[in-house]
What does this fold into?
Amino acid sequence: MGAKLGVGLGMVVLGVMLAGCGGSDGQQEPVKPTESTTAAPQPSAPVPITHSEAPYQFGDVQAKAPPIVDGRAPVIRRIPTDKPYVFITIDDGEIKDPNALSLITQSGFRPTMFLAQKFVAGEAAYFRDIRDQTGADIEDHTVNHPNLRGKPYAFQRKEICDDADAEAAEFGRRPVLFRPPYGNWDTNTQKAAADCGMRAVVLWTAAVNNGVVQFQEGDHLKAGDIVLMHFRTTFVQDYTAFVERARRDGLTAVPLPDFLG
It folds into this structure.
């Protein structure tokens, strides 16, 4: 599940999903790679990130999610906006990098964290600190991080609802947005998400892997792009690469829930 790309540095294997890249009508979409702005820093030595001023009062709803139709939550890949805004999302929660809180704080951004309960249970304090100190948002990513496509409705509903219930108990707020693991979904996913109280099924248009920003279309970030990264050992490189790429492209990261209110 990957495309091989030679770039003079040897053969780099780029998985289509890389733990979750792109989906269209439940089908996977490759992410075309491009280099980030600078060489990625080492995880043990995070580089300073200049704080960005909020372009509006974060937390104020700027746009509504599309309506649920026929009992199916809408699938969102990009946010329609004429403002220079981009959206950073961080998935899973497997690796708890101690530098994450300081990097997010320095950037002034408010990521949306799509967390799977298998990575959160017993360690909710790590993510609670990020939320409380940066304003980041915590949303639904299933309990066990399965590939949902093709699974029965009851299976999908349990994965989504149980994760939402657990996060409500852990963080004092029930999620309202859902991201399917690996970006894989079908109509049962949409129905289950809606029945679990989700406003939207959220995918992405760009991803950051190993300190490199990759795009599904074009060679730069565009207004309205939703960017995917993960809580991995490369968190410092990935988050820094996103911040630098967004600024190079003249964009400011703003909270995703503000545009799916």
Q: What stands out?
A: The CA atoms of residues 100 and 227 lie 17 Å apart. The chain is about 25% helix and 20% strand. Residues 153-171 form the longest helix (19 residues).
